[in-house]
Design brief:
8-stranded mixed beta sheet, alpha/beta, ProC C-terminal domain-like fold, 50% helix
Length: 270
């Protein structure tokens, strides 16, 4: 493998495009030796390819250090066989939800060095977290390559079992929606007790963003940070008693929600 890896990106939509931008911004791939395959690539991606001498939609036969699959999972079986030759000697990294390594290998006509990665929505701004599983055929060098590429999306967390990808989907893959829902609910609650709609919405959004930025820089555990905000007999304590209290209502609700999401992720995986 060259000092900077060559990459074939199959699918340059929202997530694939975000990864490409991250790689180029960080200078982490050899653009002149890389390629994208997406006939519907937008003008921004097309411009980036020209700027960095990345080949787009070429029929020429070439080898790459990594093949990153970022197509919609429902079209994978139809699209991937055409790229079996590219994947034969490469590390394959799939960011498709619901497609097992067995299914991917079958579509790529026997490719064996496969990793599955589950990024989440903040990956689009390099602030995501990606859970990664690799088959035993991926050696330490291959794992380092996978990690270096997925770090363009943010933090990387490895798991030992492929089934853990379903749990990651439920926790961090779907997780941003949980926080967005809480932000919606907080804004609606602020409006219900007397704030105008725009003020309540602005406060809720800024509170989520600020709390996220703070927890990213803090070394304290979330429980310790929560306690630091909660004065005995104060307003925060009154609210938290409703959320969680002695019955641990919120914790039970979150556990049930994540379990439901993980179960559904498993049902959808083939």
């Amino acid at each position: 493998m060259t000092e900077k890896p060559s990459v074939a990106l199959i699918g340059a939509g929202a997530m694939g495009g975000a990864l490409l931008k991250g790689w180029l911004a960080a200078g982490s791939i050899n653009g002149a030796a890389s390629a994208i395959f997406d006939p519907a690539a937008d003008d921004e991606i097309t411009s980036l390819c020209k700027q960095h001498k990345i080949v787009a939609n070429s029929d020429a036969v070439a080898e790459y250090d990594a093949v990153v699959i970022a197509v919609k999972p429902q079209i994978a079986a139809d699209v991937l066989p055409a790229y079996a030759g590219l994947a034969r000697n490469a590390i394959v990294i799939s960011i498709m939800a619901g497609k097992s390594t067995v299914s991917i290998s079958k579509a790529l006509k026997g490719a064996g060095r496969i990793a599955r990665a589950m990024p989440n929505l903040p990956a689009a701004i390099g602030k995501g977290v990606t859970g990664v599983y690799a088959t035993p055929a991926v050696d330490e060098c291959g794992r380092k390559l996978v990690e270096s590429l997925m770090r363009a999306a943010g933090e990387v967390v490895w798991v030992k079992r492929e089934t853990d990808i379903d749990i990651i989907t439920a926790v961090s893959g779907s997780g941003p929606a949980y926080y967005f829902l809480l932000t919606e609910a907080l804004a609606e609650a602020g409006e219900a007790v007397g704030l105008d709609k725009s003020t309540a919405a602005a406060l809720a959004r800024a509170t989520l963003a600020g709390a996220g930025a703070l927890i990213e820089t803090e070394t304290r555990a979330p429980a310790d940070m929560r306690k630091a905000v909660t004065s005995p007999g104060g307003t925060t304590e009154a609210a938290l008693k409703v959320f969680d209290g002695d019955e641990h209502t919120l914790r039970k609700l979150v556990k049930n929600a994540v379990a439901a999401a993980a179960k559904r992720a498993g049902e959808l995986t083939d």
